[in-house]
């Protein structure tokens, strides 16, 4: 994914997560008047209440507009402008292209199902919402690169310069128990060999506050993860799924590492690699996607009426 793509995708994810979460934020932020609730305005029904204080739909919508109205309006204007430009240029995005793009995004997660589950669990983004955002991003990219031509020789040169960029990396689902001394690590290993549960032991004795409450679970890491201690990663890479190793000497402590699962992502085809490089090079030569949105809003005379939202 290019810098432009990453920037847009991060924006999409953050905006979507904010929109999905802002209703809950407002209910608990304490930003409502403290006086007793008057009868709600005609046509405005209560959507929530606390004790005898009703929160009406009009109040809710007004608060949403004040805090997020401009961003949402800009998003809507962008969608309409991009749709108009795509129609004018005869550009579209097929369902198959969206599925392929989601498959590409899923590769580092080991499976599409795991990826979709993480998106919903961590960000609250459903598969339907993800497809909508992916369709928009692909449409925007197609418009941005519609007049850019990339020679096959440029693709060859890029692949020669970055031969490992599209090599899928092995992923390991790891857990660990960190203790103060080698002797304590040996005692933990003995308890594990006697049948005690790894997660239970981690919760009882591990020093690592970030993983202890999750039974020592680190989660999925790539084979060259720069944030894991090299000794821990080296030990994990020597194991098979279900294996436990230790003691592993860290800087001032010792660890026992458990490999729950190993994921070997499927390598992309030569055709898909060249297609990805072609798009990446084209995007690097085109206007940025945010600038393209601005240009299209201007081209199609997008306006926000004065007083509609706080600018």
From TrEMBL:
<dbReference type="InterPro" id="IPR046357">
    <property type="entry name" value="PPIase_dom_sf"/>
</dbReference>
<keyword id="KW-1133">Transmembrane helix</keyword>
<keyword id="KW-0472">Membrane</keyword>
<keyword id="KW-0697">Rotamase</keyword>
<dbReference type="InterPro" id="IPR023058">
    <property type="entry name" value="PPIase_PpiC_CS"/>
</dbReference>
<keyword id="KW-0732">Signal</keyword>
<dbReference type="InterPro" id="IPR027304">
    <property type="entry name" value="Trigger_fact/SurA_dom_sf"/>
</dbReference>
<protein>
    <recommendedName>
        <fullName>peptidylprolyl isomerase</fullName>
        <ecNumber>5.2.1.8</ecNumber>
    </recommendedName>
</protein>
<keyword id="KW-0413">Isomerase</keyword>
<dbReference type="InterPro" id="IPR050245">
    <property type="entry name" value="PrsA_foldase"/>
</dbReference>
<feature type="domain" description="PpiC">
    <location>
        <begin position="169"/>
        <end position="261"/>
    </location>
</feature>
<keyword id="KW-0812">Transmembrane</keyword>
<dbReference type="Pfam" id="PF13145">
    <property type="entry name" value="Rotamase_2"/>
</dbReference>
<feature type="transmembrane region" description="Helical">
    <location>
        <begin position="7"/>
        <end position="28"/>
    </location>
</feature>
<dbReference type="InterPro" id="IPR000297">
    <property type="entry name" value="PPIase_PpiC"/>
</dbReference>
<dbReference type="GO" id="GO:0003755">
    <property type="term" value="F:peptidyl-prolyl cis-trans isomerase activity"/>
</dbReference>
């Amino acid at each position: 994914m290019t810098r432009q793509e990453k920037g847009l995708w991060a924006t999409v994810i953050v905006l979507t997560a904010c929109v999905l979460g802002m209703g809950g934020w407002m209910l608990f932020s304490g930003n409502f008047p403290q006086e007793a609730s008057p009868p709600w305005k005609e046509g405005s029904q209560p959507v929530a209440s606390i004790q005898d204080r009703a929160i009406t739909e009009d109040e809710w919508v007004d608060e949403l507009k004040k805090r997020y109205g401009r961003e949402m309006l800009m998003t809507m204007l962008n969608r309409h402008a991009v749709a108009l430009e795509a129609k004018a240029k005869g550009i579209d995005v097929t369902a198959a292209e969206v599925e392929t793009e989601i498959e590409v995004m899923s590769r580092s997660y080991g499976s599409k199902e795991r990826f979709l589950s993480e998106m919903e669990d961590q960000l609250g983004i459903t598969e339907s919402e993800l497809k909508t955002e992916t369709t928009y991003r692909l449409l925007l990219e197609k418009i941005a690169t519609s007049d850019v031509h990339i020679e096959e020789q440029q693709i060859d040169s890029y692949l020669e310069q970055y031969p490992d960029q599209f090599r899928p990396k092995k992923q390991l689902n790891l857990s660990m128990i960190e203790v103060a001394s080698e002797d304590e690590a040996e005692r933990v290993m003995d308890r594990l060999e006697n049948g005690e549960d790894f997660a239970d032991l981690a919760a009882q004795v591990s020093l690592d506050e970030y993983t202890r409450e999750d039974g020592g679970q680190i989660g999925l890491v790539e084979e060259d993860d720069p944030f894991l201690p090299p000794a821990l990663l080296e030990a994990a890479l020597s194991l098979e799924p279900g294996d436990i190793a230790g003691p592993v000497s860290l800087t001032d402590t010792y660890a026992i590492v458990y490999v729950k699962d190993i994921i070997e992502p499927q390598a992309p085809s030569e055709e898909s690699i060249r297609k990805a490089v072609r798009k990446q090079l084209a995007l690097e030569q085109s206007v940025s996607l945010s600038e393209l949105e601005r240009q299209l809003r201007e081209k199609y005379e997008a306006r926000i009426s004065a007083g509609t939202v706080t600018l």
